[in-house]
Structure formats: structure tokens, C-alpha cells
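Homework help board

Subject: predicted structure for assignment chain

Our instructor gave us this sequence and asked us to write out the predicted structure in C-alpha cell form, then describe one feature. I got the C-alpha cells but I'm not sure how to describe them. Can anyone check?
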Amino acid sequence: MDQISVTNFKSTVFKALGDPSRLRILQFLKDGEKCACEIVPTVGFAQPTVSRHLQVLVDCGILRRRREGNKMLYSTTSRKIYDLINMVDSRLVESLSRNVMLAIQRGYR
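My C-alpha cell output:
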């Protein structure tokens, strides 16, 4: 895979992680595989909306799914995704927001 393809793929992953609903889904799946029927009430959206979010996460390789009878089960493909998510901790958020506030004060925004 060339550098442009890798960069585009990274962008796709970050876009998938850029939605709060998808982050909630991933948090719910942190303890292991769950049925879509369990995910829907946890995130509080209608089933079609949750299905769309799950599809985005599957399409970029973050989640896998398997059918068991009439249930669709979802799980993460790698625990490393949680390492990536956890890198955006309160210290980073504070640092980034401080930089934004300084830029606003200086008239750059």
C-alpha cells in the first residue's frame, strides 16, 4: 500500500471515530461481543441509525460481525483501537482547547 493510500485509510478511520455515537458503540463493545439488539437501547437511537453507524465501523475494519441464528453479533477487530481512543485524554483536550483560546485571543480565529 503506498503512502497516499495509507493516509487516506487513516483518514477514513479517524472519520469513523469522529462521531460520538460510534464512540459510545465502541465503549459498549469494550467488554466483548454484543448483539445489535443490545447495542440499540444502549446508544438510544433507532435501529436503522445504529445499523448505519455499525456499518461504518465494519467498513473501515474497526468492527467485525457474525450471524448467529437471527442475531447479528459485533465485536472489535483489535483492542488497539481503544489505545488510540484513549490517547485523546483530558490533558490533550485541555492543551488543544487552550491553544484554540489563545488563537482566538490573538485574533487568529
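Reply (TA_rk): Your C-alpha cells look well-formed. For the description, you could write something like this. The helical segments are 3-17, 20-28, 36-43, 47-59, 80-86, 90-105. That's the kind of observation they're looking for.
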